[in-house]
Here is the input.
Amino acid sequence: MVDAFSAVFQRPNFLTFVIIFLWGFYIMVTRYNLVKKLIGMYLVQTSVIFFLVSISVKKGATVPVLLSTTEPVQAASYANPLPHVLTLTAIVVGVATLGVGLALCGAIYREYGSLDEQKILEKLE
Amino acid sequence: MTFSVQILLLLLLLTTAAGAIMVKDLMSSVLLLGSYSFFLALVWAWIGAVDVAFVEAVVGAGLATVLFLLTLFGTAPKDTRLRRPPPSLTTLIIFPLLGVLLLYAAKDLPAFGDPNSPASVHISPTYLEQSYQDTNTPNVVTAVLMDYRSLDTMIETVVIFASGIACALLLRRQV
Here is the structure.
């Protein structure tokens, strides 16, 4: 039990990821306002990306830009570049899908005059 | 010292996220979300992911906030529901369970900043050591993004284009 707690507190990034991920997910499930749901979705997206970037950290390493281009490279002195590359793509695609979601919100508001899930359901019946 | 700065940034991150979630006024909520993105970019710059921090500051804190604000100007800027109904029993059971499971998995993760973690020893040293000979670019992230994975990056523009088309079709005035 104590082991598990100390394991969590030695990884503050992971703890932050878990808190933001679950809280955003909870908002997506329980709130009725559609924009609020999208805010929760954005938090979930960014928290997962945050977790992936935290994997790339090496102690005592610097930014993955080569300091010298003539000497042979010591891989341990630069952060792992691969999670950075993959998350760059994920951020841009995430914001693009967020834009589609917000456009859907705008279209729903024009049609039903509300962004509240329950009111939209009432009007649908 | 370095660790305590990171803890401070993480606390700021959690505070702005909590603000974005709990504030009733959606306009303030969206602006708090923008500051959340900005602190996220700061955390990433602090742990050495500068390229990701740039993209988050421009796309996350800038573009996403602008998109949210445009939507709110076109619709209702307030969460009209004054009292929220209590969450269902399933929600109250599932979410703590999920949280405990995730935190239980923390023990099996490599330690934070471990240079010998599986992600850092498998293929990434090869990229770091050889990318300059292969691509003549000192920035390894750019080398991988624009050279090794250039097709992936090119097709990504198709995704952006498709989402732009979808937005334009959804938001056009006459049907």
